[in-house]
Design brief:
The chain is built from four helices and five strands; from the N terminus they run ααβαββαββ. With 103 residues, the chain is α+β, with helices and mostly antiparallel strands.
Length: 103
């Protein structure tokens, strides 16, 4: 069945199900960042980070969670301005769960 719309909670539920099934794979996938260009970095809702730790000519990196958050948009009020609605809860570099971002 194709879903024509989903909520942030729906996305978190699927991510958490995948995390339960294979925590190592999902943690590695979500933790992965790839170089991206300035056009993607300038997108209104896709979250892109700084490439400080990468030794090449790129200035920006993007990951799966940044793209997924881009589907839903970003908060535009302080103190969460620019944050997406899906949060990965991490403890000691391990993703424990995904949840809607607290506001």
């Amino acid at each position: 069945m194709i879903k024509t719309s989903i909520t942030v909670q729906d996305a978190c539920d699927v991510l958490n199900e995948a995390l339960r099934l294979d925590p190592k794979a999902i943690s590695n996938l979500v933790s992965c960042r790839v170089p991206c260009n300035s056009a993607l970095a300038g997108h209104a809702s896709i979250q892109v980070g700084s490439a400080e730790d990468i030794n090449d000519d790129t200035e920006h990196v993007v990951g799966l969670l940044g793209v997924l958050n881009g589907l839903f948009g970003t908060f535009d009020e302080d103190p969460k301005e620019g944050w997406g609605p899906i949060t990965a809860v991490v403890d000691e570099h391990v993703i424990k769960t995904f949840r809607p971002t607290e506001r």
